[in-house]
Hints:
The structure holds two protein chains of two kinds.
Chain A: H1 2-29, H2 35-42, H3 52-61, H4 68-82, H5 96-131, H6 136-150, H7 153-167, H8 179-209, H9 212-219, H10 224-262, H11 267-276, H12 280-308
Helix pairs in contact in A: 1-12, 2-3, 5-6, 5-8, 5-10, 5-12, 6-8, 7-8, 7-10, 8-10, 10-11, 10-12, 11-12
Chain B: H1 2-7, H2 9-18, H3 20-33, H4 35-52, H5 54-57, H6 89-125, H7 127-141, H8 145-156, H9 160-187, H10 190-197, H11 202-214, H12 216-238, H13 250-257, H14 266-293
Helix pairs in contact in B: 4-6, 4-14, 6-7, 6-9, 6-12, 6-14, 7-9, 8-9, 9-11, 9-12, 10-11, 12-13, 12-14, 13-14
Amino acid sequence: MHYYLAKRLAFMVLTIFAASILAFLLLHAVPGGSAETIARHTLVGLEEEVSDLMITEVSDKYNLADPLWKQYSDWLFSAVFRGDLGTSYVYFDTPVLKLISLALLPTLILAGASMLIIIVVGIPLGIYSAIHENRPADFIIRCATIIAISFPSFWVALMLILIFSLTMDWLPVTGYGTLANLILPAVALAIHPTAVIVRIVRTSMLETLGQPYITFAIAKGLLFRHIIWHHAIKNALIPVITILGLDFGHLLAGTVIIETIFAWPGIGKLMVDGVFSHDIPVVTSCIVVIVIIFLFVNLCVDMLYHVVDPRIRYE
Amino acid sequence: MSEEVTTNPGARKIIAAQSTDHSTKRWIRKIRKRLGFQVCLVLLGILVIAALFALLIAPYDPNAIDLKQKNEDPSSAHIWGTDYLGRDLFSRTLFGAQTSLLIAFVTVACAFAAGTAVGCVAAYYGGVVDEVLSRCVDLFLAFPGIIFSLALLGLIGAGILNMILALTVSQWATFARFMRGNALSIKNLEYIQSARTAGLPDRRIMMRHLMPNAIMPVLILATLDIGSVILATAGLSFLGLGIPPGIPEWGSMIGAGKEFLRTAPLNVIVPGLAITVVVLLFNFLGEGLRDILDVHDEQVIPG
């Protein structure tokens, strides 16, 4: 177990390292990353006024004339040993770490709230659908999930705003800080993964219900409700845990668009703003932070697996 | 002699697996039984034809601005109403289908080609080659790819080709992993072994024997992936990335129309419904294919 954990952690560090190289090189190698573009983007509205002197200044300030490998190793060195992810090109030289630490909590709140919706709505619906296989309720749930999977999340967000904010006037459109602000973005973000979870729970539950020990329990004359609660659900939900872990990553990716719509001050919005203003240090760091959260959550899920099902051993 | 072969169940199984003619007939029989699948195929066919001939079908120029008729409700002149610049929403949605389908088909084709090639090579050679390629695939699957597409697209700038490139980068790895798994499972079957023993060149074995027999489940993944690529394209262009102005695209129509959500919600509702319906059709198609080809794996559904 300890050996397995060590191996996983080592692979995680390697993946983060490789992802950071990929992000850094790709974003620094493309034409949009030149000192000239950055200088232009710092002068909003006066883009054409950029002088050669300014370009050299920008280039010197961020060491953009260095070869890429040196830029990367400098960045990595200060990131690992000094916790310094560089400074933003745009937000008046604010350290990137500060921007990220401010944005991290809102994103985790939003993703957490969506996760709660996925679990509380998705799992019971999936179980219900499986128990009522091929009856009207099952048919309706399956149709609803396949439609929900086809919705673009940003469009759902706008429809929710149209219905609940603009027409009914129940909930605020944008903003951050109260529970009312959280509801619409969390629902918009959760709809797609909830539908996926319903389908997976249903399949897994049907598979479990076909197992010999369930047939035996029925033959023994146990109450159907008892069989579902005590025999089927626990076993059916084990594979679902992995998908929930992966879903967390998709939620983080989804926040990119949803946060922009609802002006939610999280990592996603920070990254989109960074992309538009060509703020490469911010974008690179956002990618790395999202990768770290994603890998960490998946590691935790794998550990949880062992707790839930002691038969699974990691060597 | 022939009797001997057909009475031997093992041999029959191998013959059935190898003769593609036989299984094609079986699929056609299976398709005939499924009304929903046929309806879905027909609707998709109509959609593709409508998108291809948008120029002939569309009643208006999708970019013709008419400020006197902006944000109008549906009428006999404009069956789906007009947008915030007085452009005909039906014509724009139709041309949007062209853009979305073009991007989705080309992206999935590129990701499919790259992914199956990498997966096939990794499975066939094994050893160090497999190790290196698989770690690359793991890396691309280690984080939500759309984030990478977004960053890349923002920096290389708008353009349909750039959009395809950025999306392919985030999609190919799933195909590679899936293809590798399938190819591994048939790599040690007798007919591959005998082709090797007969001394056929590696490339020929991969192209003629390994690829065709491992590719079917990957095709299902591809149909399901078309839906998610359409969603991803729409999402990125909704943010204002990827699609240059002047080209009608559903995501950018919604992005521009959202400013008028209160006064003229049709600007947002029409293209959104178009996306939903098209993605739904592709999801049904993938679902039906999975049924017909008997691949039961929920994990195939991406995202």
